[in-house]
Write a structure and sequence with these properties.
The structure is a homodimer of 296-residue chains. Chain A is mainly α and 296 residues long. Helix content of chain A is 74%, strand content 1%. Chain A contains 16 helices and 2 strands. A two-stranded antiparallel ribbon of chain A has the order 1-2. The relative contact order of chain A is 0.11. The interface between A and B is large, with 51 and 51 residues. Chains A, B: This is Polyprenyl synthetase family protein. Chains A, B: Belongs to the FPP/GGPP synthase family. Chains A, B: Its cofactor is Mg(2+). Chains A, B: Pfam families: polyprenyl_synt.
């Protein structure tokens, strides 16, 4: 299948599965349920499910395992966006062109929706359909996802980000920050898929995780670039929000030209990681192209 | 061992294990780490670990499984208190006589500390030492804990509580609210322990979960009573906060005398559930006494 059609198909399947996940919740707390649905289904690009499926297809992992892993990751990703947007955090009113959760609902509901979405990620990993091998790996999948989402990953990165806001930090520190805040969850995509692939050579596993790690950084560098010279309408929020929030960014620390060279260099390293693999990696190469050249 | 000494021992072991859990986090986000420690170690009564250990000792479950389960439950409990205390939620400045997390630190750090503590609960269940049987049950333990903590349990109950605040609801609705908000996690204590007990008769399992469910409700009724006529110094926060917050309570809906009769009736039912068990349940009976007669 052509890459763009494949992306569209994976996005649709993920959206459908997440929508069904929401529909299965009983109605006892309708406002909370609506807020969770809003957070989970308000137009994400589903980059992480795409990565999960592309790696999984490369390794011949059963599709139902990939869908379950994707759903869990999207629950974590959606919860993190809801909490990051809160007034006490980044205080953002718009995301993907629609009101953020605490604007569409209220702050208490947004906090709870984030909390319940995080929990739901672990329910999905513990309970949702998997192949026999996937079923045997549930506890390890929980371990990897929790590590990437908590203090050792995303939450730790967000805390470092908050501490660094308004301060001037080094490129190395900014890289570590994004490695935790964005990179850890992308690495988890690769690591989780490799857990449900029998007999994968360890260097192939490492190369796939390294690819995901580089993609996480590239995603963030491009995010910083788009916040300066992107199209606000396409991005779905006003430009310049990083500078307005006193955030450290790659263009601000390196200059725009060097930030773009850094992006190209990350892309190059990612393609090298793919070349070491004994598989057809055309779709993963197309994915890397999408990540560094995206306009929203 | 005498009950009070046993309670003290379990509390101390839980505190030590949680303190060690915090010490093992690397220092990359020191403020977040300090906030997590504050939330986890600021003087809880460890009622849930006590229940876990008492049921586990009754069923001869290995102590290391009980400690791992207790740590995970306390991470969930601590996170829920941090988020419930936030300005957008119950807006409480004091808990157990010490400043709440967002007062001791700041709101963003408190949100993140709660988030990271929730994640940590699942890391503990996935990674911490367990017996062979416990190890084989990790995914089921995650399933039970997540169900009790998320939309189907604690988060759902908190959302119903928020919606009911300032409204007048029925006793049945208040009971359902507390069943989700407080009861679900106490039921999970019993359910998780029974998962690591081989060959437990199903009716014994049900009786233990029913005991925990009744204890959850009794705990809440006594909480409501203490908020009216307790000792503010012992409780560690001002009296009358429920009324001040427009919360529905059993004394407000039933009158104080009927609320106390309800508490006695829940206690009686709990003791009946214990009598159906083919074990020595003296310690569990002492636990129920502690729950309904506690003064803080």
């Amino acid at each position: 299948m052509e890459f763009l059609a494949l992306h569209q198909q994976i996005k649709q399947q993920t959206d459908d599965a997440l929508s069904q996940l929401m529909s299965m919740l009983p109605a006892h707390a309708p406002r909370l349920q609506a807020a969770m649905r809003h957070a989970l289904l308000a137009g994400g690009k589903r980059m992480r499910p795409l990565l999960v499926h592309l790696i999984g297809d490369t390794l011949d992992v059963p599709r139902r395992d990939l869908l379950t892993i994707s759903m869990a990751i999207e629950c974590i990703h959606a919860y993190s966006l809801v909490h990051d947007d809160l007034p006490a955090m980044d205080d953002d009113d718009l995301r993907r062109g629609v009101p953020t959760c605490h604007i569409a609902f209220d702050e208490a509901t947004a906090i709870l929706a984030g909390d319940a979405l995080q929990t739901l990620a672990f329910t999905v990993l513990a309970d949702y359909p998997m192949s026999e091998l996937g079923d045997a790996q549930r506890a390890k999948l929980v371990s990897v996802l929790a590590k990437s989402a908590g203090y050792l990953g995303m939450c730790g990165g967000q805390a470092i980000d908050l501490a660094a806001t308004g301060e001037s930090i080094s490129v190395a520190a900014l890289t570590q920050l994004h490695q935790l805040k964005t990179g850890a969850l992308l690495c988890a995509c690769a690591e989780m898929v490799t857990l449900v692939c029998e007999d994968l050579a360890d260097d192939s596993r490492q190369a796939l995780i390294e690819f995901a790690r580089l993609m996480g950084l590239a995603f963030q560098v491009q995010d910083d670039i788009l916040d300066v010279e992107g199209n606000a309408e396409l991005i779905g929020k006003p430009l310049g929000s990083d500078e307005g929030h006193g955030k450290n960014t790659f263009p601000a620390l390196l200059g725009m030209d060097s930030a773009k060279r850094e992006l190209a260099s990350l892309h190059e390293s990612a393609l090298q990681a793919l070349e070491s693999l004994p598989y057809n990696t055309d779709h993963l190469a197309a994915f890397s192209e999408l990540m560094v050249k995206r306009d929203h």
